[in-house]
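User: Hi! I'm working on a homework problem where we have to compare a predicted structure to a textbook description. Could you give me the structure for the chain below?
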Amino acid sequence: MFPLLINILESLMMTWFYTHCLNPRNKRVYSLSLFIVIMTIMTISNYISLYDLLLTTFLIFVVFMISQAFCQKNIWEILFLIIFEELILCVSATVYILLIPFYHPYLCIIIQKIVYGLILVGFTVFYHKHLIEIDSRSYILLSLICFISHFIYQLLIQVYIHRNMQDIEILLIIILYILFVLGILLMVFHISTQEQERRKIETMMNEMKISQNNHQHLMKLYKEMKREKHDMKHKYLLMNQYLQHKQYENLSLFLQNEMKQTELFPTFVLSQNEHLNTIINAKIIVAYASHLTVSTTIHVLKDIPLQDYHIHALLGNLLDNAIEHNCQDGSIQIKIIQEQSSLFIEIVNTFVHDVQKSFLTTKGDQSNHGYGLKTVQDIVYHYHGNIDIKTYQDDRKYFLVSIGFIFESTSNCP
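Assistant: Happy to help. Predicted C-alpha cells:
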C-alpha cells in the first residue's frame, strides 16, 4: 500500500510541474492524461525488473509525446524541461541513498519526496519569475547535457548497488552532482539573460530604423499638407462662388468631399506608454502613405507587463501584416485595452490575399521578415496568453487577430 501511495504522490508532483511549466492548451485533459500514464508506468515498474535508465527514458519519451500534442512551446524547450525534471528526481534519490543507512526506508522515501517537491516548486517559481528565453540550439545542447548527466548518474547508482560504495564516496557524488545541476541552472539563466540583451539591442536597432522611416513619411506628409495649404485659397474662392450664385447643392457636395479627405489624415496615438505610441504611430504613418485608414481604441497603463522587445515584435508583426496584405483603400482597426491584471489586443484589417491555413506570412523575403504571425504566436505562448486568428466576410473580407493575457500580479511582470 505504501509504494502505491508514493507512486500517486510522485505522479501528482510530476503532473503539477509539467502543467505549470509547459502551460498546455487544455490543462484538465492534459493533467489527467499525464497522471494516468505516469502512474501506470510507475506501478508496472514495481512488478517488473526493468533497468532504471530504460524506464526513465521510456517515461521521458511518453511525457514528451503527450506534451507535444497539448503544448505550444518549442519542442526543444519541452524536452529540456522533461529531462531536467528527471535530474531533479536524481538529486532527491541521492538524498535517499545518503539517509538509508541511518533511518527506516519509509522515512527516507518521505524525506526524498519532500526534497523532490521543494526543488520542483523552487524551479517552477524561478522559471516563471525570470521568463526564461533561450534559442532552440541552446535548448538542444542543454537537453543533451542533462540526458548525458542523467545517464552517468544511473550508471553510478548501479555501481553503488553492486559494489556497495563507501559513504564518503556517495557524499562526494552527491556534492558534485548537485553542483552540476546548479551549474546547469546558472547556464540556463546566463543564456536567457544574453538572449534578452540581444533582443533589446535588436529592438533599439529597429527603433532607429523606425525613426528613419518616420522622418521620410513625415516629410512626405509635410509636403502634402503644404500643398493642401496652397490649395486652400482656391477652395475658399470656389466656396465663395457657390455662395454668391446660391449653388447650395454643389457647395454641400464639395464640403462632403472635403470632410472625407480630412478623415484620411492620420490621427496619432497618445497613450500613457511612450514605447507603444512610437510603434503604433510609426505604423499609422506607413498606413497613411499606403492610403489606408486607421482607427484606434487604446487604453493602457504607463507600464505594460511585457518586455519592450516583445511589444515591438508583437505589434510590429501584426501591423506589418495588416498593412502589407490590405486592399486598396482598406482599413485597419487597432484595439488595445489594459487593466491591472489583463491585457487585450485586437487587430482587424481588410485583406485581399488568400490566408494560409497555418496563418504564416506570405512575404517573399522571409530572411528579413521572419514568420510573421508565427512569431506573434510564440510571444503570446511565452507569456501564457491566448490568441485567436480568423477571417470573416462583411462588406469586405476581414482578417482578425485577438490576443489576451492574464497576469497574476503586475509586480511579477518583467
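For your comparison, note the following. The beta strands are 293-299, 331-339, 342-350, 386-393, 397-406. Residues 2-200 form one domain. Good luck with the assignment!
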